[in-house]
Design brief:
The chain is mainly alpha-helical. It has a domain at 5-42: Glu-tRNAGln amidotransferase C subunit, N-terminal domain (Histone, subunit A), CATH 1.10.20.60. 39% of the residues lie in helices and 4% in strands. The protein has a two-stranded antiparallel ribbon with strand order 1-2. The longest helix has 22 residues, at 21-42.
Length: 98
């Protein structure tokens, strides 16, 4: 498939690109080549190939969620700058409505 200069300018306008005449001349054969490759892909006999979402079989990559003991609350809160009601104290970022 061979694109004319007007077709290249039209595609450039759709992509909101400002091309000079030299750029249009240089891009015409490149875009024609890209469209030729796209046509070749379309010619592949793929009727007997089942569509897939991913080329590899999916596998679970997460670890099992096994309960286990956590760190003691006192040890965690010992490193906090401020503690309030047995929790981390943080500055209020939302004003109370009243």
């Amino acid at each position: 498939m061979s694109l004319s200069a007007d077709e290249v300018r039209h595609v450039a306008r759709l992509a909101r690109l400002a091309l000079s005449d030299d750029e249009v001349t240089d891009l015409a054969p490149q875009l024609s080549g890209i469209l030729g490759y796209a046509e070749q892909v379309g010619e592949v006999a793929a009727e007997d190939v089942t569509p897939t979402v991913h080329p590899f079989a999916p596998q679970d990559v997460t670890r099992p969620d096994d309960p286990r003991p956590s760190l003691p609350r006192e040890d965690i809160l010992a490193s906090a700058p401020e503690v309030e009601q047995d929790r981390f104290a943080v500055p209020r970022i939302v004003a109370e409505e009243g």
